Amino acid sequence: MKLLVSILCVPSALLAVEFDREIRPLLQERCIECHGEKKQKGELRLDAKVHAFKGGHDGPAILAGKADASPLFQRVTSTDEDERMPPKGNPLTPAQISLIREWINSGAKWPENATDKAALTDKRLQHWSVQPIRKDFPANATIDTFIEAKLRENNLTMSPQADARTLKRRLHFDLLGLPPSDMSDKSDLSDQAYEALVDSLLASPHFGERQARHWLDIVHYADTHGFERDQLRPNAWRYRDYVIDTFNADKPYDLFIKEQIAGDALASDSRITNHASLGFLSAGPFDFVGQVETKSPMLNRAARALDLDDMVTQTLTATMGITINCARCHDHKLDPITQEEYYRLWAVFAGVKRGDRELDPAESKRLAAEKARLNKELAQTRTQIAKLAGEGFELAKVIPEASGIDVRNGSITKDKFGYHRDIQTNRLQKVPSVPSVLWVFVPSGPKLPIAFKQEVTGIPATSGHFWDTIANHAINAQRSTTLAGTDFATKGHSMLAMHANSGITFDLAKLREQSGLKAMRLTGLVGFGASKEAAASKADFTVFVDTDLKFQKLKLRKDETAALDLEVPAKAKTLTLIATDGGDGIGNDLLFIGDPKLVPEIAETRLTEADAAQLQQLRAKAQKLEKALQAIPEPEKVYAILSDPKPPVIKVQRRGNPEDEAQEVTPGAFSWVKHASAAFGDQNTPEAQRRLALANWITHPDNPLTARVIVNRLWHHHFGQGLVNTPSDFGIGGNPPSHPELLDFLARELMTHRWSLKHVHKLIVMSKAYRQRSTGVMENGSDGKPTLQHSTAPTLRDSSNRLLWRQNPRRLDAETLRDTVLAVSGKLNLARGGPGYRDFNYTEAYAPIYDYITPDKPELWRRSIYRFIVRTTPHQFMTTLDCPDPANFTPARAQTTTALQALTLSNNEFMLQQARHLAERAKTPERAFQLCFQRDATPAELAAAKQIDLFSLCRMLLNANEFVYVD
Question: Are the beta carbons of 310 and 226 closer than 8 angstroms?
Answer without folding.
Answer: no
